[in-house]
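Moderator note: this is an archived Q&A kept for reference. The question asked for a predicted structure of one protein chain; the sequence and the answer are reproduced below.
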Amino acid sequence: MAIDDETRSGQAERDESAWSVARLNNEIEAALESASNRFPTYVVGEVSDATAKGYGTFFTLRDVDGEETIQCIIWSSYRNRIDESITEGEEVIVRSDVDFYTDGGRTQLNVKNYWPVGDSERTQELETLRAELDQEGLFDTDRKQPLPPFPSNIGIVTSLMGSAREDVREAAWGRAPGVTLTFFGATVQGKNAPPSLVGAIRQADQEPDVDIIVVTRGGGADDTLWCFNEEPVVRAIADCQTPTVVGVGHEDDETLAEGVADTSAMTPTEAGTVATPAMSTVRDRVAEIERRLRTGYDAIVRDRLDAYDRRVDNAVVSIERAAENRRAQIQRAADLEQRLDTAYSTLTSTRLDNLDSRIDTAVQQREHAAETEAVTATATRRRVAGLEARIDQAYQTRVQRETERLDRRIERGYQDIESSTDIKAAQQQVRQLQVVVLVLLGLLVLGVVLWASGLL
């Protein structure tokens, strides 16, 4: 849209940068929702222009010290749970959310509960305790324990006479029929509620078999739910070592006990649902896993069988090739054997012929040598006979000559001995000479024998 802002004249044209009313209201609503944590839960003001309708009550909340106002609505579902009446001109405190009505483009407070200013002291105490717990970090999400996914025993702290007991039981057993529910009875409203709730909570926390603690009760006015804002109850829940679930009242009821719990639920039924696994979903998941496992197993088996088939086929081909190679080797061995037989026969015949020839030659040579040896032996014998005759003759001649010489020496010796004054010494010399003669004769005989044998 093009407009001359200075002259306030000109023709308006459509411009893409201009927002529609619907877009503007939607953006305002989104901005308020994203900044909801900036707005307080409780607002104080003076009631005016109250108008009751069948579906709810409209009224205006005026600033106590000024003229500023904001529109409020309290729906009939909350109006019926509030004991106080809405009176114009009365100063009240409302618990509400900031709401933006996009169709009308207006901001309003969506009221959940309210009290006359006379009750504001308790509200101030609540806010002081809330700030103290927040400063200690009891509302922080990082300190909250996760709930066990498959609890076997759930401890339930509630009134044994209220409807919340049955709501939790039906919700829990509807989702997990096999889960054990252990009830710890407690008073859930009135002056005796805080110590009763603290005792039951601690008893459940000390029970070793309890996996989750559920603290719950049904809906009611803020006064009846106030015990779940009491500091001993809130701190008992925060100190639990066992994971906790707190579900108090209806959808829009808010207590400090829910803020410090590990998990909060809007109603007792939801508390039983939150604390238990959906076994039907688990069974479906298990069935899906089984189906996937079966499919995967079938695929793996099929792939393995295909692989085995390929390996068997390859092995058969390898065996056939090995058999062909073996048959070829057997044929080659048979050919070699035949060739060896032929070569052996040929070689054997040749060798035998050569051996026969050599044997014949050797026999002839041996016969010739035998004849030669026989002739040589005859000549040798003749020579030996001649030598023996010559030796005998030489022996006799020499022996005779030596004997004669020895006789002459003996005779001379004897003569010498006789002329010696020592006859014993002469006799001893004679014996020595005789020994010498005998030795000489032995040597002579030995020499003759050796010479006759051709050794000399």
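Archived answer notes: The mean pLDDT is 81.
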